[in-house]
Amino acid sequence: MGRLLSAAAIGLVFGIGIVFSGMANPAKVLNFFDLFGTWDPSLIFVMGSALLVTFVGYRLVLRRPAPIFHRTFHLPTKRDLDAPLIAGSALFGIGWGIAGFCPGGAIPALGSGEPSPIIFVAAMVVGILVATALKASLSRRQALA
Amino acid sequence: METTFTPLQALIGGAMIGLSAVSLMALHGRAAGMTGILSGAIMPKGDWNWRLAFLIGAILAPGLIVLVTGVSVPFQADLPPWAIILGGLLVGVGVTFGGGCTSGHGVCGIARLSSRSIVATLTFMATTFLTVFIVRHALGGF
Question: What sign does the CA torsion over A77, A82, A87, A90 have?
Answer without folding.
Answer: positive
